[in-house]
Design brief:
By secondary structure, this protein is an alpha/beta fold. The protein has two domains: 178 residues, FAD/NAD(P)-binding domain; 119 residues, FAD/NAD(P)-binding domain (3-Layer(bba) Sandwich). The protein is 24% helix and 28% strand. The strands form five sheets. Strands 1, 2, 3, 4, 5, 6 and 19 form a seven-stranded mixed β-sheet that branches. The structure holds flavin-adenine dinucleotide. Flavin-adenine dinucleotide binds next to helix 1, strand 2, helix 5 and helix 7. The site of flavin-adenine dinucleotide has 36 residues, from helix 1, strand 2, helix 5 and helix 7.
Length: 311
Amino acid sequence: MYDVIILGAGPAGLAAGLYAGRSRMNALLIEKGQDGGQIATTNEIENYPGQIVDEEESGPSLIARMSKQVEKFGCERISDVVQSVELAGDVKKVVCAGGEYEAKTIILATGAHSRPIGCKNEGQYVGKGISFCATCDANFFEDFEVYVVGGGDSAVEEAMYLTNFARKVTIIHRRDELRAAKSIQEKAFANPKMNFMWDSVVEEVGGEGMLGWMDVRNVKTDEITRIEADEDDGIFGLFGFIGFLPNTELFEGQVELENGYILTDDNMATNIPGVFAAGDLRKKSLRQVVTAAADGAIAATQALKYIEHAE
Ligand SMILES: Cc1cc2nc3c(=O)[nH]c(=O)nc-3n(C[C@H](O)[C@H](O)[C@H](O)COP(=O)(O)OP(=O)(O)OC[C@H]3O[C@@H](n4cnc5c(N)ncnc54)[C@H](O)[C@@H]3O)c2cc1C
């Protein structure tokens, strides 16, 4: 029986693991993929306090330090996929592909995932031209043409990162101006490799095995433009950065949700005693590494208090 089981090793889960381990809780952290969650997929992180941007620093390098700290304070780690949870009652149960675990408290920190682009045939071309992670896939498009869907901070920053690899990067945006911060926009407009398709959405994608064409619709005129891969390339890249959806399906019908996001109080407590939530899966005003880490720290501290009161 663990004191606490933490689901997900993004910034929220890692901070919870660090605080739980450091306060000598018998803690287990379960992660299905690589540590760091979303921030491990980006090179650019300029706003985590103390993170100074230079060539050596990135999302993954920040996470590597967080993981090391978690290890140092003795939080147990398992690499597995959480398949179901039983949250009610004094003993919380977590069922993973490789085993079942029990704890007095639980911290839900499974984060969020990219919202799909929403075009016809999208699923067939994910990993075959369509991607949601520039850091992971940019080098596949060295000297190719790349399109980016979105107009917020992430979309524009990731598009500029892609200009280090692709010969041309075009932002496809459904409005006639970007939503990204003005300072980011200025850099994008000054970048000679950047192009813009305004008032546009991707309707359908296709190609023989790999992404070879897409139909883009102008939302004002309804005109469809077919974009085809250059004959010599045979493929182009299409990256989606249009927001996120919380990873809370596993908890539906148990914890209270609003639009899929978990409702908590200021102490990260959900409606179920002993169940806490931290990070991007929570209803909150700012979803960033600094707030995810803060949530994780609070959740672990409150889990300890909950156990002390129960004893
Ligand atoms: C491209 C991009 C750029 C960004 N740039 C910045 C930035 O510059 N500054 C900033 O502060 N923030 C940035 N963010 C936001 C930041 O990454 C998130 O706010 C932060 O990662 C949220 O942390 P989290 O721990 O709540 O969730 P996540 O990072 O989503 O981590 C959740 C973890 O849970 C795991 N998980 C999910 N389901 C299961 C399961 N069933 N079983 C086991 N494990 C599971 C996932 O694999 C993942 O590792 C960026 C995000 C993106 C995508």
